[in-house]
Write the structure tokens for this entry.
Amino acid sequence: MDKIDIPPIPEFIEMVSDTGAGLCACKVAADLFELDKDDLVDPVQGIIMVGEFYEHAADGQIIHT
């Protein structure tokens, strides 16, 4: 990660969360890896499907997918 100037994942998640952005996990990935909400770090608000993501993001100004 240092070679491409990207912070470690925990630091990156904290940086994103500190901006006020909402963080959600992908339902398909969570199911694939047999994860539930309790397995995720605190800033993650929930596990959602892609359709729910688009509903949440509809009021956003910038979306990176």
